[in-house]
Amino acid sequence: MGIKEIAKEANVSVATVSRVLNGTKFVSEELQRKVLEVIERQGYVANHVARSMVLKKTFTVGLIMPVVSELYHQMIFTHAEFILEEAGYKVLVCRVKDTAQSVQSYLDLLLENRVDGMILMHETSNPKVLEQLKKSQIPIVLTGIDIPGLSLPQVRIDDYQAAYDGTKYLLSHEKKRIALIGGWGYSVGDKRLEGYKTALAEAGIEFDSSLIIPGFYTMQSGSQAVKLLIRERIGFDAVFALSDEMAVGVMKELLEQGKGIPSDVAVLGFDGIELGQYTNPTLATVKQPIEQIGILAAERLLAMLNGEESEETLILPHSISPGNSVR
Amino acid sequence: MGIKEIAKEANVSVATVSRVLNGTKFVSEELQRKVLEVIERQGYVANHVARSMVLKKTFTVGLIMPVVSELYHQMIFTHAEFILEEAGYKVLVCRVKDTAQSVQSYLDLLLENRVDGMILMHETSNPKVLEQLKKSQIPIVLTGIDIPGLSLPQVRIDDYQAAYDGTKYLLSHEKKRIALIGGWGYSVGDKRLEGYKTALAEAGIEFDSSLIIPGFYTMQSGSQAVKLLIRERIGFDAVFALSDEMAVGVMKELLEQGKGIPSDVAVLGFDGIELGQYTNPTLATVKQPIEQIGILAAERLLAMLNGEESEETLILPHSISPGNSVR
DNA sequence: CTGAAAGCGCTTACAG
DNA sequence: CTGAAAGCGCTTACAG
């Protein structure tokens, strides 16, 4: 079953078995053949948990991500995983369902399981978690998020600028009453709100807080936001949803309420997931370089896993992706 | 750093530290307090890989799933994970990108990492893999799939019947030329094809193989299937896409080609993911009990992890979920 | 090139 | 109730 049995049956030492298994040292062809033969015949399966214990390395990376904007996060994960897997790492995914408390427990979980590094895609302001992150012994890269005051490397876009550009885009289409749907109280959302405000101010349009609607970055919450706007009789000629998934919900609800898109209401999304090209109408959106974010986050982590230091923030370019929802 | 340091500092044995850590045996309040104090002060983090080695249990479940029909598989994963997590298990996700070879290597990976059990959502016909699955020492439950000849427990719907019912539904809406898009050569797809054929035969409609289009269960491939049908001038008044994601691609392409849905072409999906209610028009679909599949698969696995035997196949009921894409 | 032995950080019979 | 010690399945200096 174990290396010991293999060794005995092949008439060699466990050291030799270990060496042919890992190719760490030269082993004579004869012994190699003998060992391999026994391994094959016995159907021996190496025990990586024992291996991890002595190496103090699990070849596992922890990934903490929120359960909203699934298509966006999933795509980042997909690209990051591809790189990590190629480098011999597996990934332990933690999907944060609810509150900050949950980030805490996932962090503990990953640490107890001795992941070699972490990709963090979920913001938190929990001071205890922040403290833990700060004195983390393992490399961590923040992906798509910014946790101010933490000197960890980041890979993301400039959310302020992106929202500013998105808002400008809507303004350039003669929109005056732009509802903004997003999650407030977090760094990313708040920065985007600032970008929106700045663009409005520059256009000489007064900020109206009744147009700022809280959303949970799900299709359903996009739909609810529109319901709210209409129920409260808040006039609006555009919706800027801070995730494409919310935008999908927004469009569905608008159509259901008999509104034309974009004739009555223009809709602009955020993220640039594939789905936006398959909706009817197609979705204009502020596009994040999703693939690049995933790849670069993984590569950055790998570099750190290989001993490189990094605190650098990598800001990737966003762009406006046109669609029939804004015209 | 380790339990040994904690023990020394608290003036107790490592056994005692282990006991208060795990609550496995009664420890006097005084020692307990002392140990806890040191643990807290030192910020000790338990090492679960060492723990796993001696316990021969990793509290990890492996999940092998395809990278297509992501929203469907993701939802099953979501529900299964919820149950598993509650029971103290974490899950190691393997997302199969390409061929059968890849299932093989993921299987090896999971076995080497000593997962306690596995949920398999990806079909395979690779004989070596089949052999490995057959003599698996750990519990495995097949989820949403059927691998004939393997006496492993399954949780899924009756794919034959579901496709039969879906086809009947389209037929009852006076559709005569129903294109079927799916993946052939696999158990699930082939069964659905049989259901389709039977329904057609019962309705006295001759089977036309030019209406059977291969697809990869992605939005893009749904779109391509429609392009193919139109390019080849194959007349059709309905499309039965064997995943909702393909159906979304189908609808997008139909609209783009100026076809009315359902006036010119009715579209029926398969799976019943949330997105179908957010498309325009809303998607009629053959609905799988996704939540139940996920939950029951996880519960079944947990039961086996607790020593229960099971080879039972659990067939869950499907249903037709109406939508404006079929009227 | 190969092997004996120590050690990775825990858990748990076994004694006391 | 508590502790000394063996052992989980590996890797790797250290000798030879």
Give an overview of the whole structure:
2 copies of one chain form a homodimer. With 327 residues, the first copy, chain A, is α/β, with parallel strands linked by helices. Helix content of chain A is 46%, strand content 17%. Chain A starts with a helix and ends in a 6-residue tail after the last strand. The mean pLDDT of chain A is 94. The interface between A and B is large, with 43 and 43 residues. Chain A binds a DNA duplex (16 and 16 nucleotides) through α2 and α4.
Described by strand count, sense and barrel closure, the largest sheet of chain A is: 6 strands, parallel
Task: Note the beta-strand portion of chain A.
Answer: 15-25%
How many domains would you count in the coordinates of chain A?
Answer: 3
Helical content of chain A stands at 40-55%
Quaternary: homodimer
Distance separating the two termini of chain A? 67 Å
The best one-word shape of chain A is elongated
The biggest chain-chain interface is: A-B, 43 and 43 residues
CATH class of the largest domain in chain A: Alpha Beta
Order of helices and strands of chain A: HHHHEHEHEHEEHEHEHEHEEHEE
CATH superfamily of the largest domain in chain A: Response regulator
Instruction: Order the strands across the largest sheet of chain A as they lie in space.
Output: 2-1-3-4-5-11
